[in-house]
Amino acid sequence: MAAAHVLVFPFPAQGHMNCMMHFATGLLGAGLHPPRLGDAAAALAAGSRRLHFMSVPDGLPDDHARAVGDFLEHMELLRTKGSVAYRVLLTSLVRAGDDSAGFPPVTCVVADLSIPRLSIPRLFELGELPFPAGGDLDEPVRGVPGMENFLRRRDLPSFSRGCGNPMLQKVNEDTAHSRKARALVLNTAASMEGPALAHIAPNMRDVFAIGPLHTMFPAPAAAGSLWRADDGCMAWLDVLPDRSVVYMSLGSLTVISLEQFTEFLHGLVAAGYPFLWVLRPDMSAALREAITAAGDSKARVVEWAPQLDVLRHRAVGCFLTHAGWNSTLEAAVEGVPTVCWPFFADQQMNSRFVGGVWRTGLDMKDVCDRAVVERMVREAMESGEIRASAQALARQLRRDVADDCGSSAAEFQRLVGFIKVLSLSMADTGQ
């Protein structure tokens, strides 16, 4: 059989790189060759001769901030300038591999640049999209199978709001392109999103639900990280009582105004619990105010945290999060109740599932008021019902990734076999 050589191509953002690093680690364990296009995690690359890192230019200068406000520009440059360099590299890797690293030709590509949202074309057909910016956000959305009873306009991706949003049209176009793929690989578990998987499957040639990847295939904490985590916060947590701390992190892209920051701060202080707050380097102007307002004994503010370790720590009682998918999965696996304040993209939908389907936390979308922050943080910290739901989901997810009987573990093995068959067919056809 021809050697299977997988090219893993993440979108160049922190959350995407995190997920793909765990995926590449899993492929290594299965005996495949998975090089990954990117600059980070050189330490992991040095530890394995079968993991090779390469990069392609995205069309922006090295010192460009690549902020969320530039997202459409970044996407367009990746589609034009970046794709040219990518195709040149891919062509060389498919034809000859990488002789200098001893890699065989590439036989399979796993890319996350085109994310299918398979219901969006149908929502256009039904007239559910686009809806006006001033429309009723609590209007039910009826066109998504399995979600008729709980989905509202405000739960759709943020780019759905307002007619003429270019991002909405782009996602609609990308959905058609995604259906041409040989398979769709999802970092989820059947126990979390069974109805959604059942809806997706008939629209794709094959679907693999192989998550949560970070639990199945742990990678070094620093691998893929754009910022250095402040490990000192772990010692601060060590001296605090069990389930007494609110951990707050809004991820790698969320932008908050000074007014929103002030509401969060006053709400956290009023809730009365110690809190660990991640304020990225680009938010660092607020650090002194946060520490002064709360006092050193009640607050710890860091530019970046070792999130997996924090969520596993006994002192953490709840997680105030942007509801990015990585953060949502990481909290779910650890059974930590969440308060969700989504910013954009998939986060609106994720937060609705947390509050309205899994019941593992509270959905605070579209609100940034100190009284609401205080009330929801207290409820997440103190509700036995929410904690029980969170812990029940955590137990199920651990069963899902168990090697002997887990559905995600079995799906990953099926994926490995699928990739090997692709490699053999390429060798047989000379493609």
TrEMBL record:
Q: Pfam families given for it?
A: UDPGT
Which EC numbers does the record give? 2.4.1.-
Q: Tell me where the transmembrane regions lie.
A: none
- Family the UniProt entry places it in: Belongs to the UDP-glycosyltransferase family.
The record, for CDD domains, names: GT1_Gtf-like
Its taxonomic placement starts with: Eukaryota, Viridiplantae, Streptophyta, Embryophyta, Tracheophyta
**Which molecular function term from Gene Ontology is one that the record holds?**
quercetin 7-O-glucosyltransferase activity
> Which InterPro entries does the UniProt entry name for this protein?
UDP_glucos_trans (IPR002213), UDP_glycos_trans_CS (IPR035595)
Keywords per UniProt:
Glycosyltransferase, Transferase
Species this chain originates from: Oryza punctata (Red rice)
Task: Name it.
Answer: Glycosyltransferase
Task: Write down the SUPFAM superfamilies for this protein, in alphabetical order.
Answer: UDP-Glycosyltransferase/glycogen phosphorylase
